[in-house]
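Schema walkthrough. Field components (list of strings):
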Amino acid sequence: MASDDIWILGIAMTKFGKHSDKDIVDLGSQAAIAALADAGVTMADIGILAAGNLMGAGAGFGQQLQKQIGQTGIPVFNVANACATGATALRTAIMAVKAGEARMGLAVGAEKLSGAGLLGGGGASKKSGNKFEPSGRFGSVLPTDGRIGTDTMPGTFAQVGMEYGHKYGGVSFELFARISEKNHAHSVLNPMAAYQKRFTLDEIMNDMMIAYPNTRPMCSANCDGAAAAVVTSGEVLRTLSKEQQRRAIKVSASVLTSDPYQEACQVLPDVNTLTRNAAIIAYEQAGVSPSDLDLVELHDCFATAELVHYDNLMLCPEGGAVDFFMSGATWRDGSTPVNVSGGLESKGHPIAATGIANIWEVCHHLRNEAGDRQIKDAKVGLAHVIGLGSACGIHILERSGL
Amino acid sequence: MAQQIPHVAYLELGDSPHLVANECTTCGARYFDRRNACAKCFNNDFKKAAISQDGILKSFTIVAFAAPGVPVPFVAGIIDCNGTSVRGNIVDCDPTPEKVSLGMKVRLTTFSLGTDEDGTEAIGFGFAPA
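Field assembly_structure (string):
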C-alpha cells in the first residue's frame, strides 16, 4: 500500500429508526465508540474529529461528543452541509490525514429526525402585520412557497425526476414507483433499516400522494441515527496488525463538489451537474470505471432522484436511465446493484448520518461481513450523497486484498 | 382605483404583465432575485430584461402535502420561457396528471392575492394552458 493512500480502519452505524430514549450525543457516541472498537484504536490515537449534525448546527456537536467519548484536546471541526453533512465530515477527516496533520481521524454524523414531517416548505414566513411590504431578495409581499412553485423537498425532487422525463422521455408514475418497489424489497434483508417492509407496486402507487409522482413510500424516511468512521494513512496502516490491514477498506476516491452555475439552477436546484462532475473526478482518482462497481449506494432521497443519478453517476449511457432501470440492472441480482441497504426510502435518512452510513454499507460488503444481503465477492463500491443547495459527496471504496 | 403591488418585485404589472430578470451585462445570465454579482462570470453590473410570457412546461409536480396554510393540491412547475427558466404554478387547469403534461404550452397570467389594510391589492402570477 502507498504511504499516502487513505484507509477506513473502522466504521459503525446505529440502527436507523426511532430512538426516543437517546439524544443526538448518545447516538453519536454509540456510533463513534463502535467505530473506534471496530478500528482497534482509542480516542488517544485520534488526531482530528469532524462532527456533523445539521438540525442543531451551531451547538458545537463535536465538543459535546468529546465530553462523552474522550476530551483529548484535538482539533474539532463542526460541519453542516445539508444532506451531504456526513460525507463532508468524512472528507474533512480524510483531508487532515492526507495533509499529514493527523495520523488518524474520526468522522461522526448524527441526527434526530423522527416525526419531523415535511421538510423544506413554508420557510419564507412573513412578519405579522396587514400591510404589503416587499422584503427579501425577491421583494415579495407574501410568502412564495405554494404560490410560486414549491419549496418542499418531495416537490422539488419530483420536479428533478420529471425534468429528466421531459429531456429524455420514458418516465411515468409507475416507473418511479417501481424504483421504490426495488429499494423496499432490498430493505427486507437489512436489520439496520428503519423500515423492512416489502411493498407491492399497487401498494406504493395507491399510498398517500405527497407530491406527484412521489407517494409516501417513495420519500425518504425521517428517522434517528448515527454513523462514524476512523480513517488513517497507508503509512500508519503498515504499522498495524495483519487483521487491521485485512479489514481496512481503501478510499480510492474522496470527492466533494458544489453546483456550478447552470441556466436553470436559480429556479430548480441542479442536482445533476455537480454529481456528474464529482463522478468524473472520482472515477479518475480511483482509476475505476462505472462497470467495475460491484455495488452503489446513491442518494435516493426520493424515488424520482434515484433515476437521475443512474445517469449522473454514468452507470448508464446519457439519457438511458429508464432503460437501465427497466433492464433490472439495479436490483441486487443485477449487473450494478443500487441501494441494497434499502436506500433512504426504507433504511431511513437521519440527515448527517446518511453520508457515513452509506459508506458503512459498502464497506460491509467489501469486507464480506454483510450477512444475508452480502453482494457476493464485492471488490469495489461507490457511495454518493447530495445536499440540496447543493453539495455532492462521492467516495469510491475498495477492499484491501490482503 | 385601488393601488396594486406585485407579489414579487420581478413581476411587472400594467397593460401587459410580464416578468423581468436582472441580466448580467457581460454574460447574459438572468436572475430573478437581487444580486451582488453574477454567479456565472462574477461581473456586478446588471440590466433589466423582459421575459417572454409564453413558455413550455419542462417539469412539474402536483403538490398534495404542503406547509400549513398552503392550499393543496396545486401544480408547481418549471417553465422554459424562450430560453429562460421560470418557476411558477400552473393555474386555470385541474391539478391532475391527466390535465397537466410535460411539454405543454403555457402563458403567463395574473390574479389577485387579496388586499391589505390600506386597500392595496397584491397581484400574483401563474401560467395557464395556452
